[in-house]
Amino acid sequence: MASLSFDARLNLQLGKNHQQQQSLVFEEIEGLIRVHKDGQVERFPVIPNVSCAISSGVNTHARDVTIDKFTNLWARAYVPNRPGKYPLLVYFHGGGFCVGSAAWSCYHEFLANLVSTAGCVIISVNYRLAPENRLPAAYEDGVNVIMWVKRQVADGSNEHKWWVSQCNLSNFFLVGDSAGANIAFNVAVRLGNISASVSNAIKPLHLKGVILIQPFFGGESRTGSERMASHPPNSALTLSASDAYWRLSLPSGANRDHPWCNPLSNRIDPSIPSMMVCISELDILKDRNMQLCNALANMGKAVEMVMYRGVGHAFQVLHKSQMARSRTQEMISHIKAFINQ
């Protein structure tokens, strides 16, 4: 059964027959989301949501935490089931800004595995989705989560002691995959701007780096990998889906050269911290991801680029082949090394 919501801003008042108006589709990504011209948004349960209590089969503990009741902003917190002080990762899921959840089973499994294997604490953010909440809503949610974490640390909250007490706050990272990597990048830029005007804005947190997994960026001009004649079987991201996600998530009237979509269309903020960029060889975003790495390196920024051969977009959460499983363990090893260097 599809989940339904309503965005009055999409109501174009076409004709007098409401039933006819309801049937008019404004945008659709088959099997994932259908947006009607009357403002109705349908999301299809392609991946099941799971409770935080569901066992992931690894040595971790997870709970859901409320961050902002007004905007329904919440997160799923993961900690290792062993004492210690661990790097803190704030994670943003993928889904083209329009679908996905911190409760999706594929993220629950991947992040629990990452926590157990890499040794870290993860706050996985369930941010607001487009088109009901177009960008920059997800970026604002990301910043609000960081400020909420800062408050829990400062207040010495007993309610959140179970995960706060295991965080090494000087080892704090922003992480995301696909659209979530775009969010991580833009939240880092915003935190840099805040810190430039407010001293110790996120103290005692220290943003040590950003990990971008197949970051979802775009542009009006096509890259070679976007023009690929063929995509891997069951590709998680096609060019037509990518374009649709941008039409649904960017501010109305913006094109794909908007800096939130194409960071190379503008000057990249020099306050951006060191980065690791994880790229899939068979991803339509491969060339764009590599261009970002080159631009950061030309700025003198520390950037570590890792290429995963023989796999496509979102392989670490959506694909179950032996190749994908092997590459996923490689990715977790690379992340572990990056957050502990």
TrEMBL record:
One of its GO terms (molecular function) is hydrolase activity. SUPFAM superfamilies: alpha/beta-Hydrolases (SSF53474). It comes from the Eukaryota. Residues 89-316 form the Alpha/beta hydrolase fold-3 domain. InterPro entries: AB_hydrolase_3, AB_hydrolase_fold, Carboxylest/Gibb_receptor. PANTHER family: ARYLACETAMIDE DEACETYLASE (PTHR23024), CARBOXYLESTERASE 17-RELATED (PTHR23024:SF589). Belongs to the 'GDXG' lipolytic enzyme family. This is Probable carboxylesterase 17. The lineage of its organism: Eukaryota, Viridiplantae, Streptophyta, Embryophyta, Tracheophyta. The gene is LOC115745413.
